[in-house]
Amino acid sequence: MRVAGKTTFLKTLGAKVLPGSNNIEEYDSFTFNLDSGKKIYIGAGKDIGGHTTYINQYTKIIEKADVIFYFLDIEKYLNNYIDPIDGLHYRRDCNSRLDLINIHKDSKKVIIFATHKDKLMITESIAKSKFFDLMKDKKYSEMLEGIIFINLTNISETKSVINKIFN
Ligand SMILES: Nc1nc2c(ncn2[C@@H]2O[C@H](COP(=O)(O)OP(=O)(O)O)[C@@H](O)[C@H]2O)c(=O)[nH]1
Ligand SMILES: [Mg+2]
């Protein structure tokens, strides 16, 4: 999703993101060193915006990926945010992307980040149960089971989550 924290996450991983054209920024391959000593190799790529125009590239992006990371702003999701400029309904927009990922993911691992958890006015466990309740009848509800609630502006929290995911 747009402004959910994709670039923030990529930078915490260690990508050196260079500005390009059309809202697309490029980065070279790099490695992330896990606390265990293991290294994760991240291939060069593009940091594209979450704007709807990129939705038609989702299939291609998913096919090329080894692991799929999806970022949504949980505060906007739970509060049913409507964008004042384009009128997009956050939930609907988010759900249609989840559906698309679910359709094309094959056997790939999908990791879903519920970002901006620090903006919630309720506890994480209440937020989680509200979220699961909203999603319980979705075709992709199983894909959401391991959802990670996170504050991506907290670098040590993010690094610890990365270590958990890849160990
Ligand atoms: N409070 C808070 N801010 C966040 C979080 N994740 C990202 N942000 C902020 O949200 C804005 C958009 O993040 P960015 O990484 O550029 O989103 P992108 O459009 O998905 O690449 C930036 O100002 C980030 O600092 C979070 O978990 N909590
Ligand atoms: Mg970005």
Topology summary:
Layout: H1 6-13, E1 25-27, E2 30-33, E3 39-42, E4 45-47, H2 58-64, E5 67-73, H3 74-78, H4 90-104, E6 109-115, H5 124-135, E7 148-149, H6 155-166
Parallel strand pairs: 5-6, 6-7
Antiparallel strand pairs: 1-4, 2-3
Bound molecules: guanosine-5'-diphosphate and magnesium ion (MG).
Magnesium ion (MG) is lined by residues 6-7, 47.
Describe the structure.
The structure is a single chain. The chain is globular. It has 167 residues and is an alpha/beta fold. The protein has a three-stranded parallel β-sheet. Strand 2 and strand 3 form a beta hairpin. It has a single domain, classed as 3-Layer(aba) Sandwich (Rossmann fold), CATH 3.40.50. The site of guanosine-5'-diphosphate (GDP) has 17 residues, from helix 1.
